[in-house]
Specification:
Helix 5 packs parallel to helix 6. By secondary structure, the protein is α/β, with parallel strands linked by helices. Strands 1, 2, 3, 4, 5, 6, 7, 8, 9 and 10 form a 10-stranded mixed sheet that branches. A hairpin with a 2-residue loop joins strand 2 and strand 3.
């Protein structure tokens, strides 16, 4: 008897805040088809009118997109949204929490949150994504950490928290738009075969009850050059400091300015890497399912 198709979690923050809303439904459909092509079932995660939804329908996503303001939900404010009847787009940490509660073990995203650089003016700012990986047994397929963050510090925090970081066909920890950082940062192990990766992920999730970071670098043809990236980032960060942006507002502000300064190149790269991650997540979930639970 063939195995039932396993689920793969997808987050709503990318669709609500990461791209223009008029393109959100189209991208959601593309990601869903990519996951299905890998042999899995896409399960879009979000909160609608105070109800956690794992497996959000297109009409429910449309309802969320029609709202004038949609808060980002992490593990800190997820419970408040549920208690007060809010609608909200789930970030990595909140998506992990809801996915784990629903028994989903694989989640595809773009980039993890992490440790912010001190020069952004945000003070001590560390994403709840990192701690969520110690709490919820979900494998997160990601293109590393957003390049606007302190990538080296974030990798050190993951090490300190005991979160395994493994690379799919890479020895290096990527930085979102970049396939590697300089100086390079390593991973705990490299896997070149999806079945071998699936066997490790399945066993490690069961053994530890913690999450796993599976890094999948942006496709080589979609990578942004180091020189261009550094120029855009310096300019966008200066604009954030000048505008007095701090805390949770830093990342969306800087990303928005990067999209403008790059003429949309960073946005195109963002879409390319999330599609690649959705494909790998679908194949990984399928291989885990075929290998037994």
């Amino acid at each position: 008897m063939p195995h039932a198709a396993p689920p793969v979690a997808l987050e709503t923050t990318l669709l609500v805040h990461g791209i223009s809303r008029d393109k959100s439904l189209g991208l959601s459909r593309e990601l869903a088809e990519i996951v299905r092509a890998g042999g899995a079932i896409p399960e879009l995660v979000g909160v609608l009118r105070g109800k956690a939804v794992v497996g959000m329908s297109e009409s429910q996503l449309s309802e969320m997109l029609a709202l004038p303001s949609v808060p980002k939900l992490n593990t800190a404010n997820l419970g408040i949204a549920l208690a007060r009847g809010w609608s909200g787009a789930t970030t990595v940490s909140a998506t992990m929490e809801l996915a784990a509660a629903a028994g989903i073990r694989v989640f595809a995203t773009g980039g993890l949150g992490g440790v912010h650089k001190a020069e952004t003016g945000s003070g001590l700012d560390v994403s709840s994504d990192l701690v969520a990986l110690t709490r919820f047994p979900v494998a997160v397929v990601t293109s590393g950490v957003k390049s606007i963050l302190d990538v080296h510090a974030t990798r050190e925090v993951l090490e300190t928290l005991g979160v395994p970081v493994v690379g799919f066909r890479t020895d290096q920890f990527p930085a979102f738009y970049l396939r590697r950082t300089e100086p390079p940062i390593g991973v705990d192990a490299r896997f070149d075969d999806v079945k071998e990766l699936a066997a490790f992920v399945r066993a490690e999730l069961m053994r530890s009850g913690r999450g796993i970071v599976v890094v999948n670098p942006i496709p080589a043809g979609d990578e942004i050059s180091q020189g261009e990236w550094e120029g855009w980032l310096i300019a966008a960060t200066a604009l954030a400091v000048a505008a007095g942006v701090s805390g949770r507002g830093v990342t969306p502000f800087v990303l928005g300015k990067l999209h403008e300064l790059s003429g949309g190149a960073t946005l195109r790269a963002n879409v390319a890497l999330i599609k690649a991650n959705a494909g790998l997540a679908g194949r990984l979930a399928r291989a885990m399912s075929e290998g037994g639970r």
